[in-house]
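User: I'm preparing a small set of examples for a lab meeting where we compare how different chains pack in three dimensions. I only have the primary sequence for this one, and I'd like the structure in token form so I can line it up with the others. Please keep the answer compact; I'll paste it straight into my notes.
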Amino acid sequence: MSTQEFFEGVTTFFDLAGVAVLLGGLVLAVVVSARSVVRRDSASVTVVVFRSTFGRALLLSLEILIAADLTRTLTVDPTLENVFVLGVIVIIRSVLSISLDIEMEGVVPWRRRAVDAEERREGET
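Assistant: Understood. Below is the structure token output for the 125-residue chain.
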């Protein structure tokens, strides 16, 4: 097995894992939301449960697909065009990941620790 074939296999594995995580997250989000409906939670609670469950799966899936893109750089011809296209894909997926994280947590990732510390201080008083 050549190095090229090995990294193509790794890339395929990451691609399939990313899709599997996304589909599994969707199924889990539907199940958790259905349980929320059975408990007769309000519609807004059910939506929040679905969004947070599916959002976390989507974030993990994006991270795995970024790993696939990075390993793909080892398998494509190293032309400037191919590297540029892969770079743009990684940037788009990274921006999506950060945007989803902000949407779910309500704070940019690099400020989360400061916000958590501030909330702990407020809780102690």
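A couple of notes for your slides: Residues 3-124 form one domain. Residues 34 and 90 are 34 Å apart (CA to CA).

User: Perfect, thanks.
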